[in-house]
Design a protein that fits this description.
Layout lengths: L1 E4 L12 E3 L2 H8 L5 E3 L2 H5 L1 H27 L2 E6 L6 E6 L1 H12 L8 E2 L3 E3 L1 E7 L8 E8 L16 H26 L1
C-alpha cells in the first residue's frame, strides 16, 4: 500500500514522503495514529504543503532541543549496581533508568523510547545514544559499576582471559616432562 506520511516516522521517512508499506502496517498503525494517509490523487496534491510545514516544524524543534543536545553530549551518568565477580549484573540498567537519570541531571524529561541501546547487563563504560529528534542524536556516557566500589575502579569488565594463557603454559612443560620420562624409561629398558 502506498501512503503519504503526515509526520516523521522513525526508520521510515519524513513527513510529505510517499512510501510503500505493508497493508497491515498502514491500516493498523500509521493511519490510526494519524502518521500517514493513503496516497490518493487528492492527498498527493497536498504532499508539497505537508512537506514544507513538516520541514518548518522540524527546524523549530531542532532549535528548541539544541541546548539539551549539547548538555547531553557532556553528560556522564553513573549507576551503582549489584554484579557478579565476572562483571555480569543481577538485572540490567534499563532504558527507563537511563531516562530517569537524564531527567534528574538535565532537568528535562525524556521518553524511554528515545534511548537507543540494548539494556546494559555488564559492568563497564558505555556510549548510549539518545534520539531527541531525527537530526539531533547526542551520546551520553553511562558508567555501570559495583555498588560497593568507586565509579572509576570497576568500570572494566572482569576478564578471566588472563588466566587461560597461563594454564596453556603449564600444560606444555608437563608434556615435555612426560616425553623425557618416556625417553629415560626406554634408555633404561
Amino acid at each position: 500500500m502506498r501512503v503519504l506520511l503526515l509526520k516523521d516516522v522513525y526508520k521510515l521517512g519524513h513527513a510529505g514522503d510517499v512510501k510503500k508499506v505493508a497493508d497491515g502496517f498502514a491500516r493498523n498503525y500509521l493511519i490510526p495514529h494519524n502518521l500517514a494517509t493513503t496516497a490518493t490523487v487528492g492527498a498527493l496534491k497536498q504532499a508539497d504543503r505537508v512537506r514544507s510545514v513538516a520541514t518548518d516544524l522540524r527546524e523549530k524543534e531542532n532549535l528548541e532541543k539544541a541546548g539539551l543536545a549539547g548538555a547531553l553530549a557532556n553528560l556522564q551518568l553513573t549507576f551503582p549496581v549489584r554484579a557478579s565477580d565476572q562483571g555480569k549484573l543481577y538485572g540490567s540498567v534499563t532504558h527507563q533508568m537511563i531516562a530517569d537519570a537524564i531527567a534528574a541531571a538535565a532537568g528535562e524529561k525524556i521518553d524511554r523510547r528515545s534511548v537507543m541501546s540494548p539494556p546494559l547487563r555488564q559492568i563497564g563504560t558505555f556510549k548510549v545514544t539518545i534520539r531527541l529528534t531525527s537530526d539531533l542524536v547526542p551520546e551520553v556516557t553511562v558508567i555501570v559499576h559495583h555498588e560497593d566500589e568507586e565509579p572509576g575502579a570497576g568500570t572494566e569488565p572482569a576478564a578471566v582471559a588472563t588466566e587461560e594463557p597461563a594454564a596453556e603454559v603449564e600444560r606444555e612443560p608437563v608434556v615435555e616432562e612426560v616425553e623425557q620420562e618416556a625417553e629415560v624409561e626406554e634408555a633404561t629398558a
